[in-house]
Design goal:
The chain is α/β, with parallel strands linked by helices and about 210 residues long. It is about 35% helix and about 25% strand. The strands form 2 sheets. The protein has a 7-stranded mixed beta sheet with strand order 3-2-1-4-5-6-7, with helices on both faces. It has a two-stranded antiparallel ribbon with strand order 8-9. Bound molecules: glycinamide ribonucleotide (GAR). Glycinamide ribonucleotide (GAR) binds next to helix 1 and strand 5.
Length: about 210
């Protein structure tokens, strides 16, 4: 059995997708807690109707409190899903290789908080999603997974957002599952999966889009 915690500051749609998909398809993974830094985050409402406990981080000593929670729960992964805070260096160093983040662009294009809007305004014809380990920069850590999206220039921003979120919801949980089940090494900026044999190692099926039965 594996347990993970999810950190979210806003709507929490990725959090909900992770909870639902682990319950349906990846049943050896439990989301033990939602952790948020925003008392009005809609993610809290989702945690209530999904029956997942949540913790609201205090404004002061935020990351010390988070560290204590992590020490108590000892999750296999700390999953950021729209957690809009820069993680301090000491916390990253203590947990490096265990913190993953999802970002709504093909990094290194459009890091930061407004990636979809910036990609849209720029007029890119290809964008996508990135799942990466967290380092102490803003959306700069080693890349685990990316998936592209061809952009129709006639779409409005809402359409682009909808398609990006669909990709996020489709891929985040299977990639988390792959990280938990597959041996891998982080070599500099590269994340190398060292064993692609066997069903237990789902990350390669993820890339072929075969991850959900
Ligand atoms: C997601 O699109 C996620 O990629 C983005 O915040 C959104 C959260 O949505 N994260 C970043 O931009 C991180 N730099 P959600 O709360 O509905 O899951």
């Amino acid at each position: 059995m594996y347990n993970i915690v999810v950190l979210a500051s806003g709507s929490g749609s990725n959090f909900e997708a992770i909870v639902k998909q682990t319950r349906l398809y990846f049943t050896d993974i439990t989301v033990s807690m939602l952790i948020t830094d925003k008392k009005n985050a809609f993610a809290i409402k989702r945690s209530e109707y999904l029956g997942i406990p949540y913790t609201l981080l205090p404004k002061h000593r935020r990351f010390r409190v988070l560290d204590e929670i992590i020490d108590t729960i000892k999750p296999h992964l700390i999953v950021l899903a729209g957690f809009m805070r820069i993680i301090p260096r000491w916390f990253v160093e203590e947990h490096f290789g265990k913190i993953v983040n999802i970002h709504p662009s093909l990094l290194p294009s459009f890091p930061g908080m407004h990636a979809i809007r910036q990609a849209y305004d720029y007029g890119v014809r290809v964008t996508g999603i990135t799942i990466h380990f967290v380092d102490s920069g803003v959306d700069t850590g080693p890349i685990i997974f990316q998936y592209p999206l061809m952009v129709n220039p006639e779409w409005d921003i809402e359409k682009l957002e909808e398609y990006i979120h669909r990709l996020e919801h489709r891929f985040y949980t299977p990639v988390i599952n792959g990280l938990l089940h597959c041996p891998y090494e982080i070599r500099g900026r590269k994340v190398i999966f060292t064993d692609n044999r066997g069903d237990a190692c789902d990350i390669f099926r993820v890339e072929r889009g075969e991850h959900i039965p």
